[in-house]
């Protein structure tokens, strides 16, 4: 048995494979249309890879290495499969001359070979990446919370939609999402790990937005790592540092927390310099993306990613993301899952 694999007792998928495939299409269409309407976003086309050495690709937690290759017909320049589109989207907001209060969304498809494979993590990542232009005055916690509430409203609406399509699938999500800062979580559960804290608070409130992911807490460690050049995790707020966070929900099928989205207000040039200094990455200031931001050529914005297969797994009450997504899995994991009625694509 795999250390990170959870096998729910007496698991049986509520809907069959044919219904699952139809539901995936319906969920994706319904959610993206309602997300676009709620946040005033337009759809754009995104790249699968970008040039290396430009600073456009994301470092995520700072340790993942992107898949890379050399392009023969371009003098063997090196390219990288994207890991997310946070910085590319900001460049695109500028290129398309997107105005305040408007934004973009796109399909993001990535390969993350360093992922530890389990019920929720795959080598293949598919999500809706979205980004919206904001004003200087909107760079605050109240505005962040308002956007989180809008996204949560779309999640609620989608869950109700799925329940209408398949009456056997009952709603889990509470009426409202609860906001709590990572520093509050540390104070409340000082002896627990960040993941254990998430399970505790999420089991209690069922849907939570954890604020301030990336900055060091009182114990000298962050709740979770974040790259220094997209989310703002150092701006002071009433409860602690950070204008970013994660939407997490309690998932009874697995008996644990389920992360649906990571998002935040993006760095301005002052915050970029500060966070690059904190993480020891000041040399990045010379890169293409960072130069654009430091020269005031990019708009202020808020954005994030929302997992497509994650949403389908959650809304269809599946035990494993591999039930809604085709990927590569260890043979022993596939065998273990199959013995327990979890059939990986």
How much helicity do the residues have?
Answer: 25-40%
Domain count: 1
Number of helices: 9
Q: Which strand-content bin applies to the residues?
A: 15-25%
Largest sheet: 8 strands, mixed
- Spatial gap, N to C terminus: 19 Å
User: Residue ranges: pLDDT <50 for 5 or more in a row?
Assistant: none
Number of strands: 11
Query: CATH superfamily, please?
Result: Bira Bifunctional Protein, Domain 2
- Radius of gyration using CA atoms only: 20 Å
Derived from helix and strand composition plus strand pairing, the structural class reads alpha+beta
CATH architecture: 2-Layer Sandwich
Order of helices and strands: HEEEEHEEHEHHEEEHHEHH
For this entry, what is the oligomeric state of its chains?
single chain
Overall shape: globular
Strand order of the largest sheet: 1-5-6-11-10-9-8-7
CATH topology: BirA Bifunctional Protein, domain 2
The overall average pLDDT, rounded, is 92
CATH class: Alpha Beta
Report on this model:
This protein has 345 residues and is of the alpha+beta class. The chain has a single domain, classed as Bira Bifunctional Protein, Domain 2 (BirA Bifunctional Protein, domain 2). The chain contains nine helices and eleven strands. The protein has helices spanning 17-39, 86-95, 141-165, 182-188, 194-205, 269-279, 288-294, 308-315, 331-339, and strands spanning 41-43, 49-51, 68-71, 77-81, 103-111, 124-133, 178-181, 207-211, 244-251, 256-265, 301-307. It is globular, with a radius of gyration of 20 Å. It starts with 16 loop residues before the first helix and ends in a 6-residue tail after the last helix.
